[in-house]
Request: fold
Amino acid sequence: MQANWQWIPTAVAVSMLGACTTRTVTHEVVREQPIVQQQPVVVAQAQPAVVERVVQMPTAPQEAIPPSPGPGYSWVAGHYEWNNQWIWQPGTWRAGTIRPMPSPIVETPGMSPATATRWIPGYWTIVNNDWLWVRGQWQ
Reply:
């Protein structure tokens, strides 16, 4: 008996069509309402303006250097020091070897710690025949 293979393509096509069925899927759409919570109202208080005052050192007066009192003396140039105001310290001769006053150090004051403060820049002062840098500060 001989097999009849001609019907196989038709059978495959029919079985494939049977697999292609239309199916209707219904989705339910749920819309949620947002939950509104009442928050307390915070009123921002106006901050007072910060005025950063810098108390600049005055210009140094011209000094006439008097003659040395003798050998072994060094001239200490006049300079300002801070004591609730800038106070001029006149130049003087001192016994021993003293290096010249170094250049000022540039300092960044940063933010003022309070509204009623002022920045006092740093300065050089003479201590034990050498220069000492006094750092700037908020007062």
Notes: Strands lie at 53-54, 73-76, 79-82, 86-89, 92-95, 118-120, 123-127, 130-134, 137-138. The mean pLDDT is 80. The CA atoms of residues 84 and 139 lie 9 Å apart.
